[in-house]
Each structure stands twice: as structure tokens, then as C-alpha cells.
């Protein structure tokens, strides 16, 4: 079998993340998980869309949102998706240093994004939007906050991998781990596309 | 056939010439799709930031742009365009299908607030 041969010889297979059965299972299982995550976010989006005009006299989206800030955050997250794509391309070349470097770049962009989000929430809070101010406030903070929690988790996950495997080189054990972490990161970006469109752009223009 | 398998041993060697060629092309494709996504995103922001397009048309327009961008992200960045991703496609589109129903239902339950 071609797969076992690759394992025996310790040579680089074209798709190291799927060269072992464990790797293939991780890959497929992770997509099942992402299918479920899609539904989780859908319920939060649905709630937000139903409640977004229920501001109960408090500030609403159009009073609070700043397009320039959201634009910068979007660009940062999009770019971090590209850096993680480069990480995987380097993984397939067995350029381990390149893989680690691009993953660190992804982490850095993720942290920058989180910094902006913390600033944003802080700013809204001081403009009178507490979590319990209105139905709009709770659904907004829950939706965007859940996304932010995913970003935080993704950053911690990638840092853990980078520290744990900083010296081992690329192996058939860690290749699927890096690959699934990158898939997760892209998923975060996919969710953000809907957040900037449905929450911010509709909040200002709709 | 040797039975000694150690998946934690570092992999030796580098990509074959054919793989290397594919990866080079892959990198190019990814950069192009990234630039295109930046373009789509900027268009969506400009649609809302300026009053060039009336909002009755602007809102479906930016929702369409978001849809295009998500499909690109899934198929290019997340490699769903590659071979052997039948189950992956099935799972994620099932998720999307249930998600669409969930969004519609919640909006109806809570009272539609115009989109």
C-alpha cells in the first residue's frame, strides 16, 4: 500500500496530513465538527437578526459602529487566513521553519484582531451599551463575543502546537494537527465574513 | 514489508518535482483568490459607506458578495475544491442548509426586523 510505504520510509508524502489513518480521521472528523459549528453560529445570527432593532431606548448599531475599524479588523483576519495557507504550503514542502514562521504570523494577526475587538467592546460599553441594556445588546455581544472566543481559542491552540512541536520537525503525528488548526482558523474567517456583512454593514446601511 | 511504523519520526526529504510545481501554482492561486477577496470586501464596505447604490439594492448586493466570499474561502483556502472531499462537501453543505433554516425560523419567531 502506498500509504504504508510512505510511513515506512519516513519520506515526505504529498499530503502529510492525510498519510495516516489517524490523520484522515482527524481531517474528516474536524469537518463534521465544523458542520455543527455552522449551526451554532446560525442560531446566534438568527437571534441577532430578530432582535437587532429592539434597542429599548439604548444605543443601536447605527449609533455605535465605525466602518473604518471594522474594515481594518476584516483585513487583518483575511490576511491571517492567507498566512495560514502559506504555512500549509510550506508544510507540504517539508519546510518546517517556514511552517512555524507563517503560523506565528497568523497568531500575531489573530492577537491584533483580538486587541481591536477588546477596544471595540470597551468603547461600546462606555457609550452606554452594557450586556443587559437591550435585546440588541445581548444578542450583539453574544454573537460577536462567541466569535471572539473562537479567535482566542484558535490563537491558544496554535501557540500550544508551536511550543509543543518547536523542535521536532514535521512528522506524520503533528502534520494533521497543524492542518486542522488551520482549517479552524479559516472557519473563524468564514464566520467573520457574515458578521461584518450582517452585523456591521447592515447595522449601518440597513 | 517492514512493520516498524513510527509516525513521530521527522519526515525526510522534500517535495517531488511534480508536487513542487503544483505547490507553486497553488501559492499563486491562493494569492489571486486573496486579492479577489480583498476586492469583494472593499466593494461591500464602499457600497455601505457611500450612497452611490440605494440601500434597497445595496443590502441584497452585499449579502451576495458575502456568499461569494464564503464559497471562495471554503473551496480555495480550505481546499474543498480538491479531490476526495465528497464527505466534507456533504457535511458542510448540510450544516449550511440547517443553518439557513435556523436563521429563517428564529427571525420569524422573534418577529422580522427587516433582514
TrEMBL record, chain A:
One of its GO terms (biological process) is aerobic electron transport chain. It is a multi-pass membrane protein. Its main location: membrane. Residues 1-204 form the Heme-copper oxidase subunit III family profile domain. It is found in: Cell membrane. The chain crosses the membrane at residues 28-49, 69-89, 101-119, 139-163, 183-203. This is Cytochrome (Ubi)quinol oxidase subunit III. The lineage of its organism: Bacteria, Bacillati, Bacillota, Bacilli, Bacillales.
TrEMBL record, chain B:
This is Cytochrome C oxidase subunit IV family protein. GO terms for cellular component: plasma membrane. Residues 1-17 have a biased composition (Polar residues). Keywords: Cell membrane, Membrane, Transmembrane, Transmembrane helix. Residues 1-21 are annotated as: Disordered. Pfam families: COX4_pro. The keyword Signal does not apply.
Amino acid at each position: 500500500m502506498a500509504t504504508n510505504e510512505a510511513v515506512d520510509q519516513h519520506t515526505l508524502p504529498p499530503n502529510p496530513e492525510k498519510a495516516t489513518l489517524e490523520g484522515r480521521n482527524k481531517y474528516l472528523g474536524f469537518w463534521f465538527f465544523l458542520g455543527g459549528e455552522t449551526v451554532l453560529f446560525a442560531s446566534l445570527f438568527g437571534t441577532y437578526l430578530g432582535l437587532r432593532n429592539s434597542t429599548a431606548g439604548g444605543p443601536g448599531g447605527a449609533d455605535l459602529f465605525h466602518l473604518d475599524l471594522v474594515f481594518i479588523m476584516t483585513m487583518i483576519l483575511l490576511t491571517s487566513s492567507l498566512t495560514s495557507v502559506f504555512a500549509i504550503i510550506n508544510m507540504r514542502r517539508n519546510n518546517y521553519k517556514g511552517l512555524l514562521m507563517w503560523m506565528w504570523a497568523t497568531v500575531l494577526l489573530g492577537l491584533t484582531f483580538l486587541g481591536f475587538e477588546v477596544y471595540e467592546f470597551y468603547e461600546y460599553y462606555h457609550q452606554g451599551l452594557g450586556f443587559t441594556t437591550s435585546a440588541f445588546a445581548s444578542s450583539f455581544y453574544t454573537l460577536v463575543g462567541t466569535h471572539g472566543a473562537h479567535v482566542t481559542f484558535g490563537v491558544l491552540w496554535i501557540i500550544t502546537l508551536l511550543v509543543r512541536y518547536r523542535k521536532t520537525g514535521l512528522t506524520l503525528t503533528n502534520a494533521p494537527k497543524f492542518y486542522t488548526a488551520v482549517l479552524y482558523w479559516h472557519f473563524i474567517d468564514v464566520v467573520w465574513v457574515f458578521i461584518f456583512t450582517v452585523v456591521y454593514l447592515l447595522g449601518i446601511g440597513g | 514489508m517492514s512493520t516498524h511504523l513510527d509516525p513521530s519520526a521527522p519526515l525526510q526529504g522534500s517535495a517531488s518535482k511534480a508536487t513542487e510545481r503544483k505547490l507553486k501554482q497553488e501559492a499563486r492561486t491562493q494569492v489571486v483568490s486573496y486579492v479577489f477577496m480583498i476586492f469583494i470586501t472593499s466593494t461591500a464596505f464602499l457600497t455601505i459607506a457611500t450612497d452611490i447604490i440605494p440601500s434597497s439594492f445595496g443590502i441584497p448586493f452585499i449579502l451576495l458578495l458575502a456568499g461569494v466570499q464564503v464559497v471562495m474561502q471554503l473551496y480555495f483556502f480550505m481546499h474543498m475544491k480538491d479531490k476526495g472531499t465528497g464527505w466534507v462537501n456533504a457535511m458542510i453543505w448540510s450544516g449550511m442548509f440547517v443553518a439557513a433554516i435556523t436563521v429563517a425560523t428564529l427571525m420569524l419567531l422573534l418577529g422580522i426586523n427587516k433582514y
